[in-house]
């Protein structure tokens, strides 16, 4: 199937999964990359308290909060 045919079928709402190699499918820009950020001690303490209150890790709460901010 050519790309234009695939696109038309997709836009018509047809099931095009038979033409995809789902074993190799991947979302772009979703690979984790390490970033180092220095926070003052008071901020680490506040993050740890909030993370503990929510029952999540410090890293999780930082990722959620940054994601929320970037989406707005």
How would you describe this structure in keywords?
Arc Repressor Mutant; 72 residues; mainly alpha; elongated
Structure in words:
The chain has three helices and no strands. The protein is mainly α and 72 residues long. Helix 2 packs across helix 3. It has a single domain, classed as Arc Repressor Mutant, CATH 1.10.1220. It is elongated.
Short description:
This protein has 72 residues and is mostly helical.
CATH architecture: Orthogonal Bundle
| N-to-C CA distance | 39 Å
- Whole-number total of structural domains: 1
- Return Rg in Å: 21 Å
Output the structural class. mainly alpha
Highest CATH level, the class:
Mainly Alpha
Question: Helical residue percent?
Answer: 40-55%
Kindly state the number of beta strands: 0
Largest sheet report: none
Number of helices: 3
Q: Output mean pLDDT.
A: 92
List the helices and strands and how they pair.
Elements: H1 3-11, H2 41-54, H3 58-71
Helix pairs in contact: 2-3
């Amino acid at each position: 199937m050519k790309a234009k045919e695939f696109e038309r079928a997709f836009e018509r709402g047809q099931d095009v999964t038979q033409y995809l190699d789902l074993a190799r499918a991947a979302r772009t820009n979703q690979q984790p990359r390490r970033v180092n950020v220095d926070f003052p001690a008071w901020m680490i303490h506040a993050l740890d308290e909030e993370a503990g209150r929510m029952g999540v890790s410090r890293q999780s709460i930082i990722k959620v909060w940054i994601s929320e901010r970037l989406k707005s």
